[in-house]
Structure formats: C-alpha cells, structure tokens
Amino acid sequence: GKDMKVGGGLVSRGPRAAAFPPLLLGRRRATFRCYSSSSSTDHVSFIKDVAATQPPEHLHHLLKMLQVRGEPIISPGAKQNLIPLAIPLSENSAGSVTALLRWPTAPPGMEMPVVEVRKHGVWLLAKNVDQYIHRILVEEDANNSRKSNYELFHASADAGEKLYKKGDFAESQISNLDVYLLRKVGLFPDILERKVKHHFEKGDQVSALVTGEFYTKKEHFPGFGRPFVFNAEVLLKFVEIFPYFVQKVSVY
C-alpha cells in the first residue's frame, strides 16, 4: 500500500494493529519550552503540514492545561527516539511523553488519540483531545472540591465550559470517581484495569473475568494490544486461584 510521511519518517499503511510494535525507546533529547501562544501554533502547523491531517479543535486548550499541571511543552518536531506516529505535546513528572497519535488508518472516533509514550511502549490516555480534557476537569473538580483552585478550568476556557460543568460530579451523587468517569466521560484502560483488580481484591472472580473480557472487545480500543495482555494476566491469575477447577475443565 501507500506510505505516509509522519514527522519526517515513513510509515507503511499496514494493518492497523501493526501500529503498535513492542517498542523500546532510548534516551530522549526533547526540546522543552514554556507555554506561549506560539506553542499551540507550532503544533497546529506541524499537524497540518507534516502529519497532513486536521488538528483537534481544542488542542490549544489541552496544551495550556498540560502546562498548568506542570508538564513542560515539547516542540512537535522533537521526535528523536520517539515512534514516528507520535506527535509530542509535553513531558510528565515520570519522564514519559504525552503525545497525539497520528496513525495511518484511524478507527472511527479515534482519529488522534492522546497517548503516553513510555520507555517500553505506547499507552492510551483518551480516545481524543476532548475526552482527555473532560477527564482532567472531572478529576480536578473531584480532588479539589473544597479548594478554590480554578487554574485548570481557566486554562480550559470555552472548551471546558462545553465539556464539563464545575460541580457536576458532586451533584451527580455518584460517590466513586471511576464510576462517574466510565458513565459520563467514556471508557479508559487504566480505569477498567483498576476495576478488575478491585473485583479480585473483593473475591469476586466472576466479575473480574467479565470485566477483563469486556476490556478486550475490539470496538472499545481498536489497534491497541494492552487489553489482550492484561486479560491474559487476569486469566493466569484465575488459574492460580482455582488450579483444580481449570484442571477439571481441561479433562472434559
């Protein structure tokens, strides 16, 4: 098939799942900058001219929010030792890069997902920029309900007003933040994995297995291998807990 130029490299239009080989990323020499209006302009221009696609509508707001959270903004061209498909946005406190993913054949609703590029691979943070902004605001609201910290909300500006009304989490009377996020914002890999672990901790192995299987449904996180790796770990844990049951089933 055709090749697509992304970030100065060539990416083959192969099968979608091939967008995520197990990558080992070396030391990164990223270019950092303080946030300014030119930062978002650089990213928008890069996405249009180099990645050859339409930039997310609220990318400017997300960049400002990341900077408010203490993540230095990275030049979109600082791609040394990053996979060609990643467009870097910022670096978090753990040293991982928050980035947009520009893959050759994007599934519907995931044209440019927000990902975290770690030393040993790529992890999905949100299916799109709006969903990530929404989650950040909900978590900020839930964690700072008694404080008058409006920095992130101010940074989100009109995008934030459209996505989330401050105080909605408390008004919903949903006591669990993870439950609220799954119901009101969307599905997130880390939350589903946390739910599975909580089920195991409570001794509810059936719910853990069901949630692990739900996690792997192809319509939820197409193109990402993490759900299958995690579900395999869940099944292994089940075998450890019930070895006799598994042996008995295998006989039949």
UniProtKB/TrEMBL annotation:
Query: InterPro entries annotated for this entry?
Result: PAB
Judging by the UniProt lineage, the source's domain of life is Eukaryota
* Protein name per its UniProtKB record: Uncharacterized protein
- Say which species the protein is native to: Davidia involucrata (Dove tree)
